[in-house]
Amino acid sequence: MQEKRIEIRWKDQDAYGHVNNAVYATYLEEGRDEWLRRTLGEDGDPWDFVLARVAIDFRQELRQEDGEVLARCQLTEIGRSSLRLREELLFKDGKLAAEAEAVLVARDRESGRSRPFTDAERAAFEREQAAGR
Asked: pLDDT at position 133, please?
């Protein structure tokens, strides 16, 4: 699993004094974007992928005084034009705040439609999956 530390900002809170549920999705997106950039490296462009699905299970509330959250992302399945990812948000002590499943789809920039992975993209994803990250 690749990881990214994210600072919990004051503006992330809602009227209840905890991090708003929509912000959890933003934290997951930040972790997912970082994962995609690291995984593809020079083998592709993260802008060629779109989020097709995300399902979030909220486990515990985050608060600004928690300071930061750790976003983790792991590739679980490679399709013809899509990826399935397991994602987690963790407190500093490793306790689970939320977990999610996301599906990313490769898209053709001109048509806006899904497209098969390039050979370089597929190779990068297969390396990532073999490494268990």
From this structure: 64
| pLDDT < 50 positions in the chain | none
Tell me the per-residue pLDDT of 69-99, one tens digit each, with 9 for 90 and over.
Answer: 999 999 999 999 999 999 999 999 999 999 9
DSSP 2: E
Helix ranges restricted to H, 1-133:
21-40, 119-130
What are 45's two structure tokens?
């462009």
Query: Which residue has tokens 């959890």?
Result: 24
List the CATH number of the domain containing 28.
3.10.129.10
Q: Range of 10's domain? A: 2-130
Structure token digits, residue 94 = 């490793």
